[in-house]
Design brief:
Number of strands: 17
Radius of gyration: 26 Å
Order of helices and strands: EEHEEEEHEEHEHHHEHEHEEHHEHEEHE
Shape: elongated
Structural class: alpha+beta
Strand content: 25-35%
Helix content: 25-40%
Low-confidence stretches: 1-26, 29-50, 52-56, 70-85
Mean pLDDT: 81
Number of helices: 12
Largest sheet: 6 strands, mixed
Length: 414
């Protein structure tokens, strides 16, 4: 699926026509995601932005239609197809942040560096007080760091203020743990709020709100009030509101921690699908390992205001002494024994092979199973097993080499 952002300059003497709703442009219905950022300072129409989901041939047809409109509302059309690989969308460089006076200062962030690739879902994991919320708030400049740099899509956020900062924030959507919906507004009006702030017209706001509500699975709920919704539905409204301005970055602050397990899975799957369909870069913070297992491409572990480790999830699972790997596969305490103890990770290989039985027969050893866990990560079965291997050093070394030759990651614990 092609997801393209179109920036169209407008002849302000003519009324803009939404290509997905009226006139000849109605034939593009379902492919044009909506018009965004209609007005500049003083309400003067500066340009329209559309999201277009279609093939390259349909995109060319759409642009031909734009350039031949009568009246000629659109003077020029430019196309930007965002890359989803090979570039960095969010870059945090040596950021520090403290609260309080010198004698009682609390260091919330301590020399934090982080890199999130364009189009990926990146999870920051840590317990309460680790600094996760402060980190995510520095990315959209709700908090100013004491030192360091924060780049989002190539823009240094720490140097922006006023109009420039507001414009940059339009490119960053955010969803919250407790939804933060206005109880006196309908679902549609809550979604329209961010577009009201940018000065979009009433019809444009209505069109975009209904469009994005359908996208998040809330068709028919536009007239409902937050009190009439379930927790999962409220969070879907929060996601729709965050996406109303057509951002390229979505920040999630513990968005599923107040939801039940089944609703959590539904919301996570929705975020994954939206990231794929809209080309979103997603940075989420969580203390729930299930979030990482279900949707994260990469992850970082935070504690005490510092990043302890970060990288692609699959890479961390096959890194010795990985904190993330230990958290995902909790195998219990390591017993006292004179025998060797190893942990093997089944990642990218079949987990139903009789590896342990074959190992025991081939090397003539009584293999003890001390713990095991199998998890579904990115839709694939990944398992970790802790084994006790009796025998001399040569026998153990041969058994470990045999396991590694089968494509298994083996970590010698003792």
């Amino acid at each position: 699926m092609l997801v393209t952002k179109l920036s169209l300059s407008v002849d302000t003497t003519a009324l803009p026509v939404c290509p997905g709703t009226s006139g000849r442009g109605g034939r593009f219905r379902g492919e044009v995601l909506g018009l965004i950022e209609l007005c500049g300072p003083g309400g003067v129409i500066l340009g329209l932005k559309f999201g277009f989901v279609a093939s390259h041939s349909r995109l060319a047809e759409f642009l031909d239609w734009v350039r031949t409109m009568s009246p000629p509302a659109f003077a020029e059309a430019s196309v930007k197809i965002p890359s989803t690989t090979g570039s960095t969308m969010i870059s945090v460089g040596r950021v520090s942040k403290s609260y309080g006076s010198r004698s009682t200062a609390v260091r919330a962030l301590d020399d934090v560096s982080l890199s999130v690739a364009r189009g990926e879902i990146f999870g920051v994991v840590g317990q309460s007080g680790a600094g996760k919320s402060t980190l995510i708030r520095t990315i959209n400049s709700l908090e100013r760091p004491d030192s360091g740099s924060v780049l989002v899509d190539g823009r240094e956020m720490t140097t922006l203020s006023g109009t420039e900062l507001r414009a940059a924030r339009h490119n960053i959507g955010m969803i919250f743990q407790h939804f933060n919906l206005l109880s006196s507004r309908t679902v549609q009006a809550n979604v329209e709020l961010s577009l009201e702030i940018t000065g979009a017209g009433r019809e444009a706001r209505r069109y975009r709100a209904l469009e994005i509500l359908e996208l998040v699975g809330l068709h028919g709920k536009a007239g409902a009030y937050p009190a009439q919704l379930s927790g999962g539905q409220k969070q879907r409204v929060g996601i729709a509101r965050a996406l109303a301005s057509n951002p390229t970055v979505l920040l999630s602050d513990e968005a599923t921690s107040a939801l039940d397990p089944e609703t959590t899975r539904q919301i996570l799957d929705l975020i994954r699908q939206l990231s794929k369909d809209l080309g979103l870069t997603v940075l989420l913070i969580t203390h729930e390992m299930d979030v990482v297992k279900r949707i994260c491409d990469s992850a970082a572990v935070m504690s005490g205001g510092r990043i302890l480790e970060q990288g692609p999830v699959e890479q961390l699972l096959t890194t010795e002494k990985s904190l993330l790997g230990q958290a995902l596969f909790q195998l219990g305490e390591i017993p006292e024994t004179s025998n060797a103890i190893v942990e093997i990770t089944f990642n990218g290989v079949k987990t139903d092979r009789p590896v342990i039985a074959q190992l025991a027969r081939k090397h003539g050893i009584d293999v003890g199973i001390l713990g095991a866990a199998v998890e579904t990560i990115h839709g694939h079965q990944t398992g970790r097993t802790r084994l006790e291997l009796p025998g001399d050093e040569r026998t153990v070394a041969g058994a470990v080499a045999d396991l590694r030759s089968q494509g298994l990651f083996v970590e010698v614990i003792k």
